[in-house]
Structures are given as C-alpha cells and as structure tokens.
Amino acid sequence: MQKSIAKICKGFSFSGDIATDAIGLLIHHNRRDIANHVLAVANQAQSLADRFYVDKGHALLVGLLHDISLVVTLSEMIETSLELEIEPILEEWRVPYLIHGKLSASIAKVVFGVTDDIILQAICYHTTLRANATLLDKVLFIADKLSWEPEHAPFQRDVREALGKSLDEAVGCFLTWTWNRRDRLEAVHPCLNEAWCEYRSKGFCKT
Ligand SMILES: [Fe+2]
Ligand SMILES: [Fe+2]
C-alpha cells in the first residue's frame, strides 16, 4: 500500500458501506464541512438524475466521493497525486487544488474499490467539466455548483432557471459565468477551456 493511502486510512475502521465510509473518513480527518457539502451534492445529484434520466445510484456515489481527496491537505495534494501515479499538468502544479478531482477519483478506486469508469470520470472532471461530457459528468458538475455556499455562487438563480430548459442550458449558464470572470482565476484549466469552446459552439454560452 502506498504511504499516502496508508496515511489516509490510518485509524479509521471501514464498514464496507461506501456512503457510511465516505462520510466517516471525511469526519475522521476533521472535514465535517466537506461531509456536509458532499451530502448536499449527493442529494442534489440524485434529484437531477431523476429529472434527466441518469442512474440514481451513480449520482449518489459521485456526489459522496467527488471531494474525498480533501482528506489530504492542499500542501500534500501534489505529492499524494504523484505517489498515485497522477502526473500533474502545468496548471495543476501552479494551482494544486485543480488536481483534487483526479485525486478523488484515484482514492475512490484505490480506497473504496470503485471500478466503474463512468463514475471515476465524473469525479475526475467535476471541477472543470470536459469536452464530450457524459450526462453523469454534467449532473455532478451542476449539483456541485448548486451546493456551494450562496455567497460564493451568485449564478445559482440563473442556473436553476436554465435547468428549467435543459441540463445543457444550465451547464452553459455556469460556464458563461466562470468564463466571464476567468481573469480572476489563478489558472484556466484546459478541460474547462475545452468544455467552454464546445458549449459556445453549440450556442449554450453567451459572451
Ligand atoms: Fe470539488
Ligand atoms: Fe464539491
């Protein structure tokens, strides 16, 4: 077992139930704030799954596990990723938080035994989205943004309204908000750039 995985699991008794263990492990690492957030995302993702014909079990799992890497401190995120054979790209070296989706997917696989690629990919791209995103990618992407604290998420009313039209309208609405403030981001991840280009070309983003 890698050193970083042993450190993540140290002192925690796994029950074998992913929902119990995901929440328990976050609390074990004093991340009750993230535990509350992932529960909110899991609920939101399940309700979007119902609405947009996505597997509810998948929505629950991605909601619960998408931020599991936040059991690792920001200063350890790159080192842990390297140990798990994730090669950071330039933007992730510069802004280590940008790798937390990839790291969550890796922990979901190694610690929680998740092997379904559709789940791992949705977790991986939950921050940035990607081009040719799956329905599950989009459900998690939007469920996450709708579960941010409202003071950091002035887009939520517009995104909820756009959901009344379609999931893609909601994704386009959030991408537009992010893109319009990209100068304030520490780095623009290439996956976000690709998602934006695709959504703009399809007419879902307004500039
Ligand atoms: Fe996240
Ligand atoms: Fe999140």
Task: Characterise this structure.
With 207 residues, the chain is an all-alpha fold. The chain has one domain: Hypothetical protein af1432. The protein is 60% helix and 0% strand. It has helices at 3-9, 18-28, 32-51, 56-65, 77-83, 90-94, 100-110, 117-124, 135-146, 156-163, 167-180, 190-201. The termini are far apart. The relative contact order is 0.12. The model has no long low-confidence stretch (mean pLDDT 96).
CATH topology: Hypothetical protein af1432
Multimerization state: single chain
Approximately how much helix is present in the residues? Answer: 55-70%
Low-confidence stretches at least 5 residues in length (pLDDT < 50)?
none
Radius of gyration: 16 Å
Q: Could you spell the SSE succession in H and E letters? A: HHHHHHHHHHHH
Bound molecules: fe (ii) ion
CATH class: Mainly Alpha
What's the number of helices? Answer: 12
- Give the name of the CATH architecture: Orthogonal Bundle
- CATH H-level superfamily title: Hypothetical protein af1432
Q: Could you tell me the strand content as a percent range? A: under 5%
Terminus-to-terminus distance: 48 Å
Label the overall shape: globular
Mean pLDDT: 96
Counting DSSP E segments of at least 2 residues, the number of strands comes to 0
Structural category is: mainly alpha
Please indicate the count of domains. Answer: 1
Question: How would a crystallographer describe the biggest sheet?
Answer: none
